[in-house]
Amino acid sequence: MMKWMNGFFPKGADITEKTRPPDALGDGALTASLEDNIALLEGLFCDVDTMVSRRFANGDVRFYIFYSDGVTGSMMVNEHVVEPLVTTGLLKKRGGAHELVRDQILQSSDIKESCDIAEIIAAVTYGDTLLLVGDSDRALILSSKAFTLRGVSEPEGEKILSGPREGFTEGVMTNLSLIRRRLRTHLLKIKFMSMGRHSGTTVCVLYMDNIVNKKLLDELMRRLGKIDIDCVLDSNYLAEHIAEKSFLGLNTTGATERPDVVVGRLMEGRIALIVDGSPVALTVPYLMIENFQSNEDYYMNPMYTGYGRILRILCFFMAIVIPGLYISIVAYHHEILPPALMLSFAASRKDVPLPAALECFIMLIVFDILRETGVRTPNHVGQALSIVGALVIGSSAVEAKLVAAPMVIVVAIAGITILLVPRLTATGLIARYMCLILSSLLGLSGLLIGFSVLIIHMLNLQTLGIPSVLPSERLGYQEVKDTFMRAPWPKMLTRIRPMTANTVRADSSPWGGGK
Amino acid sequence: MKIFVLCALLCLPLAGCSDYRGLDAQTIVMGIAVDEGDNGSLRVTFEIVDMDSLSSSANELETRLLETQGHTFTEAVRAGNAKLRRNMYLGNAETVILSRGIAQSRGLDAITDPLMRDNEVRCTLILIISGEDSARELLEPSGMIMSHFLTQNISAGRVSANAAQPQTLYEVSEILKENASGIALPVVRFSDRETGELTLDGLALFSQGKLTGHLGSGDTPYYLLAKTKLSGGSFRLDDGEKYAVADIRTSVPSINARYDGQKLYCEVLVDISAAAVELSPDWGAADTGAVHGLERDLSAMLSARIKSVIEEMHREHGVDGAGFGSRLRARDPNLWDELSGQWHSLIKEADVSVRCNVRVNNTGLVK
Q: How high is the ipTM of this complex?
């Protein structure tokens, strides 16, 4: 197990073993023979044409460098590794060549020594250069990473009107730099680990040492330690492993592409996970109300943003209930309608061939098809698609008497309102169809059963072992100050208790103060 | 738990859908008129929405009348369904109009009982007595949904002393069940049949569910003052020399009934807050004393009129319109049990006292 992992994982959770490539590695270590070590490496990377190797010597001392083209800066290797080794006169001294090269010749600030083949493979495939010196049984791993990464830009899915516009990229170090720039304190702890048997993906755990609840941190590490997967391509791979089960698809891990959101959550006692190769950072624990929060809520007038937040909450429930409510009324409980409205509905349903419930199912599915298609198509095609969609499922379908006009309105409201809460789209869809099926079978009773199931499930949901709704189990001002409305910043005095042992914001100084 | 969920899911197909009715798969009834039919039967006319005229524009909505006969209301409904492709849906009916003949011969029970037992019919449906020869006539004008029009017209002035006070199906049914008070239902007739203009023609008075008399439209406001809370309407005081018109802001009645072993005493107290909206110059309204004089005169005039109307209802029609019986029943159930058998004779001989307290809060002098 790597040194930085000591004491970090519970017993039995050996990440190094899990990330070790399953190929034959001999005894898993280098030997005191340069030729044997070269043969081992070249055997392991047989048929990998991107690997670059070179033998050279200075006097009696032989060298072998080995790196992967495309992820390694070859200029850097030439100038700071090969050139000093070839031109130096220090190697004329006998004995201790390995130490001499490491300590006096190489011009690199980041040099590691290892004899472990698994570690060597992980390093070389991640852009580091391997240097073998003579018959030493230890290799020098020189940091020479040089990837081509996307630049920092505003995340498409989290656009805001006001506030910072930086977004994460696919590079873990870039992402960490965006966070570090906002938290210049030694209390921000950053822990690396490797996930995925084949991918060996770097996963980074971040937390504020003086704010985080250590029990929650241990629980997260326990869950991460249990993950055994061959490849981690995105943070969602981990999210699904560490999240609590929800048959309605409710999130129990937060996901964001914004460094300011991550920092905000770290300051509330949450733990962040950044996965190399993914621009989406995870945060845990994730409370239900976070689904309705936007980072913009904290950068603009609280009254204005509070109104927006209430709208989001309202729209989430509207998206779920409205189709079922409509079916309940037009199919079972006509008496609810005022006569004028009932006649209007009856007029619109005249000559429509399908029963209202079936019509609603079909319309919702058509809308979902259009929405999904719109997401997957380029912008210019998407605009054309929305026009066609509006015409097809709108006026044309009504004129052709395939659907009733109120149904188009119902589907449009249900479809649009759920877009206001993008983090709950999955839940909205599942719960909506559940309520719709129950309403179609049992009328308003069915709708109430479905809605009750949703509410009960939400109230029972846990995130990292704490309740997702009302985690503090109290309803004091400070507990609800950032729920339906956000209190002004001077009134945001405490953090929510289960997520942190340090609840007082004002006392949580960078020097570790606070309760 | 899993077995329970499985059972619940399996029960869903059994439990649901049986009540599923598409809006377009039924005949929507907007109003009902009940007249006397042949051989003592009921002639029931349903105002139904013509589904063939339905379009997405509600302006083009048309109704037609469907007439059926039956010895009972239920029979008449079944006969109506037999004539239609789609069964009738009574959940949106707003009005039931009764002819005076049927109200006299069959009484209200024959209609309210089946309507109350029907799970579709709204309890808020209102009952009206036709002032025309038949109940059907009120539904006949074309070009509008007459039932809806009637309901709108009658319900608009629900809190005014000068308008009709419609009684809902639920209220009438409760009074009938209680059998302690009389019922007064608005009588409506056309003032201009060509234009469909309606007018309130007083109240039809019911004793034990059957029509027994009629209260003229001039007396109706005074009856309403004793019967219900009001927040509108006006009264004219004219003693030949000077006159005044008062607008009611609020009117709150309270009634009481006492029995001394031989005679029934009915007491009415009405607290009225009013505004003087029109005064003849003789009043000198700037003077506080004059305002007090106006209050005194209004109180005396209203007390006398209310007493007169209640005594007329009691003595001429035998109807306990103000609800003294209900009041006594609620206050002293044992005494009511003793008196209920002879209530209708007691009420005819009852001694009625009425006290009105009028406060004139506004004489319009601010301007």
A: 0.70
